[in-house]
Amino acid sequence: MLIPHDTRGALEVVVDLVNTAPESDQSDRLADIDALYAFVRLHHVSDIGELGEADLRAVRDVRARFADVFAAPDPRTCAELINRLVAAAGTTPRLTDHDGFDWHVHYFAPGASVADHLAADCGMALAFIVVSGEHERLRRCEAPDCRRAFVDLSRNRSRRYCDSRTCGNRLHVAAYRARRKEAAG
Q1: Which residues pair with 149 in a beta bridge?
Q2: 135: DSSP letter
């Protein structure tokens, strides 16, 4: 699956955004305005002005709606959720070639809020996955103590864990130890 750099970048942003939500043993990583500024800086979200409490609430709402996309049971539901997100953001597609990148499309309107920016660009990246017939690539980690979101970009769609070095390795080691214990009797 060939994914342009801007779409791949937006997929990384949406996964990271969804994964800021509090899980069983994790606090909300978008707890305050400073955390939102840190997220924006980390992901080089452009055209963002001064952020306030309303922005934080709006981004948390968009995050929850993206989480629903990752939980969608089928492509039709996924498409309906994405359509609502993108429509609410008031998209204005435009070509740009900033920061040393080749031409690519930004979907957010100039001067858009950070929430609309994320909803438009990340929503369109998820739309690309659905249009490609790859809805099943939008996943949650299969480790029982982790439910982090990820996009499976492996060739054979076989990725099961958000990170094979942590969640995957931890489960493989546990299974190995259980087999050894059982064999030792």
Answers
A1: 140
A2: G
> Do residues 13 and 45 lie in contact, with contact meaning Cβ atoms separated by under 8 Å?
yes
- Number of domain units in the chain: 1
Nearest partner of 94 among 80, 102, 104, 86, judged by Cα: 104
- CATH number, domain at 173? 1.10.3300.10
SS3 169: helix
* The token pair that represents 87 in the structure block: 């429509």
pTM for this entry: 0.86
Residue 60's φ and ψ, nearest 5 degrees, are -60, -40
Domain ranges, residue 45: 5-184
- 66 burial level (CB within 10 Å; 0-12, 13-18, 19+): buried
> pLDDT tens, 75-131?
999 999 999 999 999 888 888 887 777 888 888 888 899 999 999 999 999 999 999
Pinpoint the alpha helices (H) of the chain: 5-18, 33-42, 53-71, 75-89, 114-131, 169-184
Burial of residue 89 (number of CB atoms within 10 Å: 0-12, 13-18, 19+)? buried
Distance in angstroms (rounded) separating the CA atoms of residues 99 and 29: 27
Buried b / exposed e across 126-149, counting CB within 10 Å, b at 16+?
bbbbbeeebbebbbebebeebbbb
